[in-house]
Amino acid sequence: MARISIKRGFADTPKGQIHYATAGKGDPVLFLHQTPRSWDEYRDVLPLVGERYRGIAMDTIGFGDSYKPKEQGSIESYAMGVIDFLDAISIERVSLIGHHTGGVVALEVAATHPERIHKLVLSSTPYVDAADREARKRRPFIDEVEFKEDGSHLTEIWRRRMSFYPKNRPDLITRLVIDTLKVGDRMEEGHRAVSAYKMEEKTALVKAPTLVLAGARDPFSFPRMKPLSEAIKGSETAVVDEGMVPMVDQLPEEFARVVLTFLDKN
């Protein structure tokens, strides 16, 4: 079978253009990326999902090639960007998949616009409650580096991320660095938004069938998988044993398989 091709475009919203990529036909499935990535995180997933669904990956506002708001980003503003995007491409209801920061945004969308969400997948998504927010105050932001004239900040970004990526996969960190440079000096904005978000006030509002998915080798999200699942009534869980922070592009076939198995259920 020939590989499903990816097409890219821009959607016009009232606040600016949102960049996206799409593959396949059928019921729509929207993917939201982690900080500071872009749609590229799902580059190898879209053709796999596109064999059965209309896979779509958007650049969250402020990231990738989407418009950059003047105000500081928040989970709520990112979520409104998702709704604006769906309106712009005339999609009323969608299955929503988010990874890390994208998962937090996906939860906000599902909680505030339940009528728009068919199914929800929260991949490597931290459960940000009061205890987690307090713990985050003592944790340095991983991507916050000072831009240097000699370019040494690129090496610093690479060094800080290395331990969370599989060995012998410099291609994955290269893709991260490219996306980081597109964000510029706002590279930590998404992480700050997550740290300020009161997720415990929104989990009970989620009505869509939900899968909480985590990589067992992700030190940030795996310990929070159980409390997140317990906070969302009726949610299912799944674990990818070798999954690390970049699970989506690290193991695209396995990630897609787990997501498709959940989406295919009646």
In short:
This protein has 266 residues and is of the alpha/beta class. 35% of the residues lie in helices and 18% in strands.
Please describe the structure with a list of short key phrases separated by commas or semicolons.
266 residues; alpha/beta; Rossmann fold; 8-stranded mixed sheet; 10 helices; 8 strands; 35% helix; 18% strand
Give an overview in words.
The chain has 266 residues and is an alpha/beta fold. The protein has one domain: Rossmann fold. It is built from ten helices and eight strands. The protein has helices spanning 46-49, 75-88, 101-112, 130-136, 152-161, 170-183, 189-196, 225-231, 247-250, 252-263, and strands at residues 7-13, 16-23, 28-32, 54-58, 94-99, 117-123, 210-215, 236-240. The chain has an eight-stranded mixed β-sheet, sandwiched between helices. Strand 3 (28-32), helix 1 and strand 4 (54-58) form a beta-alpha-beta unit. Helix 2 (75-88) packs across helix 3. The model has no long low-confidence stretch (mean pLDDT 94).
> What is the CATH C-level name?
Alpha Beta
Number of helices: 10
Look at the helices and sheets and give the structural class.
alpha/beta
Low-confidence stretches: none
Write the layout of secondary structure elements.
Blueprint lengths: L6 E7 L2 E8 L4 E5 L13 H4 L4 E5 L16 H14 L5 E6 L1 H12 L4 E7 L6 H7 L15 H10 L8 H14 L5 H8 L13 E6 L9 H7 L4 E5 L6 H4 L1 H12 L3
Parallel strand pairs: 3-4, 3-5, 5-6, 6-7, 7-8
Antiparallel strand pairs: 1-2, 2-4
